[in-house]
Design goal:
Blueprint: E1 2-7, H1 11-24, E2 29-30, E3 38-43, H2 48-60, E4 67-72, H3 79-85, E5 90-92, H4 100-109, E6 115-117, E7 127-130, E8 133-137, E9 139-140, H5 151-154, E10 159-160, H6 163-173, E11 179-183, E12 191-194, E13 197-200, H7 201-211, E14 216-220, H8 231-234, E15 239-241, H9 249-254, H10 261-274, E16 279-286, H11 293-306, E17 310-315, H12 333-357, E18 362-374, E19 377-387
Parallel strand pairs: 1-2, 1-3, 3-4, 4-5, 5-6, 8-11, 11-14, 15-16, 16-17
Antiparallel strand pairs: 7-8, 9-10, 12-13, 18-19
Helix pairs in contact: 11-12
The chain binds iron/sulfur cluster.
Length: 390
């Protein structure tokens, strides 16, 4: 039997899809062409836009000729709609994907019409390797409950993976890799207790750094609340994705983010003063309920002050289950679009400015996915010193 997998969503969803493919390949053939017996749809519900795309995809396609399985963030919150309105055969929570083969057999053996399998079952098989990069999920879920975010409801409360397993896998593959990406909804809240001794995220990186000091470490996504203020740590990484969400303290309070813009900015200045080439990326939500022109302007000012290297801007949209659905929101669509354009333009201008700063400076780069043959050795990675000039 051949299976095909369609993914909607972010990097974490892509990562989950790789996990599913790797797992199912043990029993079925994986195909990238539209000639299959099993269709797996890995869904995302973090943004309303993505959710709409899923419903559109389901409406557009008729799924009677093959077995279809739906998993991902949307599976446990919209299962009613998926079961009733669209003919989905098996719905299962992403954390239960180890049951997929069992459920497929069960489906055929018992001639089921529909199976709905939701359980927060966790297993430690959380590692994956892609080309020369090492992608690893070290925790899942979130306990923060920001007022706009659906993740704690779709992914559940935080769960942390086994420290020794993470270490063992990295050790095992260390010869093949140069970069390690740590994933998790709140990756820097990672905790592991070893005989009452706490191993937190920073300690984990510190230990790894001792062994693999010439590696690049990246992690997505971190929360300001769990940040490490020890400067030594930032020597080990060169970029940080740290969602700001808003430049207004009032909006941050309504969002339940538990920090103020000034503390956020001071930390960034502190790191940049010591590591001038450090990269900061962020997420910003605009038009949150109650965001007037004054609050929006604070966000505009904040991006001038911080100068992010990369930013993802989203217009707030209502997500079921979140507490912000009770907030009164009367921001007109036209204004939302205007603010989006304004912020995006300002961010773009900032990028031009940042790019100018590195002109005539020597920076270290990794060239990925190139293929170089040198003295009969093959390299797909190159560390280079690059001088940027105009
Ligand atoms: S910390 Fe991040 S994942 Fe958790 S609720 Fe807030 S926005 Fe969502």
């Amino acid at each position: 039997m051949k299976f095909f997998l369609k993914t909607f969503g972010c990097q974490i969803n892509n990562y989950d899809s790789i996990k599913i493919i790797k797992f199912l390949k043990k029993k079925f053939f994986y195909t990238k062409v539209l000639n299959f017996d099993i269709l797996i749809i890995n869904t995302c519900s973090v943004r309303e836009f993505c959710q709409k795309k899923i419903f559109f995809f389901l409406k557009k396609n008729t799924f009677f000729s093959f077995l279809n399985i739906l998993t991902g963030c949307s599976s446990n919150i919209f299962f009613n709609i998926f079961l009733k309105k669209h003919y989905i055969n098996i719905i299962l929570n992403i954390n239960c994907f180890f049951f997929t083969i069992f459920l497929i057999y069960m489906f055929y053996f018992y001639k089921c019409k529909q199976i709905f399998f939701i359980d927060y079952f966790k297993k430690n098989n959380n590692l994956n390797i892609l080309k020369n990069n090492f992608y690893i999920v070290i925790m899942e879920g979130c306990n923060k409950y920001c007022s706009y975010c659906i993740i704690p409801y779709t992914r559940g409360r935080e769960l942390y993976f086994d420290f020794f397993k993470i270490f063992k896998e990295i050790f095992f593959f260390k010869l093949n890799i140069k970069e390690i990406y740590f994933f998790g909804q709140n990756v820097n809240s990672y905790k592991y207790f070893l005989k009452n001794k706490l191993i937190n995220f920073y300690f984990l990186i510190e230990i790894l750094y001792e062994f693999y000091y010439n590696f690049k470490f990246y992690y997505i996504t971190s929360n300001f609340k769990n940040l490490n203020f020890n400067l030594k740590f930032y020597k080990k990484i060169e970029s940080l994705h740290l969602p700001l969400q808003s430049g207004s303290n009032i909006i941050l309070k309504f969002m339940k983010r538990n920090y103020k813009f000034n503390s956020y900015k001071n930390l960034i200045y502190y790191i940049k003063n010591n590591f001038s080439m450090f990269n900061f990326n962020t997420d910003i939500i605009i038009c949150f309920p109650g965001e007037n022109n004054n609050y929006f302007n604070k966000t505009l000012i904040s991006i001038e002050k911080v100068l992010f290297d990369k930013s993802y801007v989203f217009i707030y949209n209502i997500r079921s289950y979140t507490s912000s659905i009770f907030f009164f929101n009367n921001i007109k669509i036209i204004l939302k679009k205007k603010r989006f354009i304004k912020l995006s333009l300002n961010l773009k201008n900032n990028i031009h400015y940042i790019n100018k700063i590195i002109i005539n400076k020597i920076i270290y780069c990794i060239f990925k996915n190139i293929f170089l043959i040198y003295n009969n050795f093959y390299f797909s990675y190159l560390y280079l010193k690059v001088l940027i000039f105009l």
